[in-house]
Amino acid sequence: MLSIGRSGLNYRKAKKPVPVALLEQHNPMCCPQPIFDGFEYPEFNQDRPVLRHELGHAVTWFRFGEGIGRLKCCRDSDEQLRAGVSLWPRTGGLEKLISREYAQQYAERLLAGELAARRARRKRTDQICSKGLPVDSSIDCLAGTLQALNPESDLAKEDIVKVLKLAINHAQLNWRAWMAERLSCADAVVGRNWAAIERIAQRLEGKLPRAGKSYVWPGTDVIAEMRRDGVRSEKHPAIEIIFNGQSGGFLTRLRRFVREMGRNGIVCRYVDLPEEDV
After folding, report:
1. SS3 of 261, please?
2. Residue 88, H or E segment
3. Tens of pLDDT along 213-247?
4. Element (H, E) at 93
5. In degrees rounded to 5, what are phi and psi of residue 149?
6. Rounded CA gap, 146 and 157, in Å?
7. How many CB atoms lie within 10 A of CB 108?
8. How many CB atoms lie within 10 A of CB 251?
């Protein structure tokens, strides 16, 4: 079986591997339809889906009330656009994903990227690319394959690998049903916010770098753009002032936090806060 401990991914082979066909026959929780797409679409590397991919991650994580950092885009000499968004709190490795709810949200954030790229290219959003992993084999075979991946390889860093580890760890034999539910929830969030993702991406397209150059969009700007288009965070706005890309030092943000809480009728008592710099 697959589990996650302090040192990372732990794998212990079950005494009797369970064939997928038998599992689906006797387990009513199994996903009733295929959720994996064996195709890898080259067009997902084009500018339009690449931008939507990263914004899918960012919007979903922001909706869950988590932190958003900078969005960086760079273009290689071969004209290939590469992008990445900084999100926190960082997991620090899957061993820290103790909370079931947090693991579910983390998986949905990971899935939201490809789902946004699929929407950009009008592909099915009830499936996800398997990246050649043995998702139709037994759980032991899949877990063993995941464990054997070189952590520095490109495949090990793929979102689908992280989601599969989460699914097996938190649902074990019911991992297919767990993953299907995460896929459905992520697609719902991306769908509800698709108009905002499109508008933000269109505004960003005019700032994309030329070959050999890069462009960084600060976290405060990313958050402002999402709010401008109606994306709402589940986190209290006072908490966002401290954790979500706001400018200023910690004490400055702490004062804003106290003021914001006061506007909501909550009195915060701090002892001798230093005077604010002018």
Report:
1. helix
2. strand 81-88
3. 999 998 888 888 998 999 988 765 545 555 554 55
4. none
5. -65, 140
6. 11
7. 25
8. 13
pTM exceeds 0.70: yes
Alpha-carbon radius of gyration of the chain: 21
Question: What is the distance between the alpha carbons of residues 16 and 122, in angstroms, rounded to a whole number?
Answer: 42
How far apart CA 58 and CA 189 sit, in angstroms, is 11
Q: What is the pLDDT of residues 28-55, one digit of tens each?
A: 344 445 799 888 888 999 999 999 999 9
Q: Which of 93, 177, 174, 178 is nearest to 139 (CA)?
A: 174
> How many CB atoms sit inside 10 A of residue 71's CB?
24
Which residue is associated with the tokens 């914001």? 260
Burial (CB < 10 A; 0-12, 13-18, 19+), residue 274, is exposed
Residue 85 DSSP class? E
CA 270 to chain CA mean position, Å:
35
23 and 30 Cβ atoms separated by less than 8 Å: yes
Question: Do residues 189 and 59 lie in contact, with contact meaning Cβ atoms separated by under 8 Å?
Answer: yes
> Cis peptide before 218, with omega less than 30 degrees from 0?
no
The token duo for 47 is 């500018």
Cα distance between residue 268 and residue 14, in whole Å: 53
**Alpha-helical regions (H) of the chain:** 20-26, 47-63, 100-120, 139-148, 159-171, 175-192, 194-205, 219-228, 237-243, 250-263
Tell me whether strands 36-37 and 67-75 are parallel, antiparallel or unpaired. unpaired
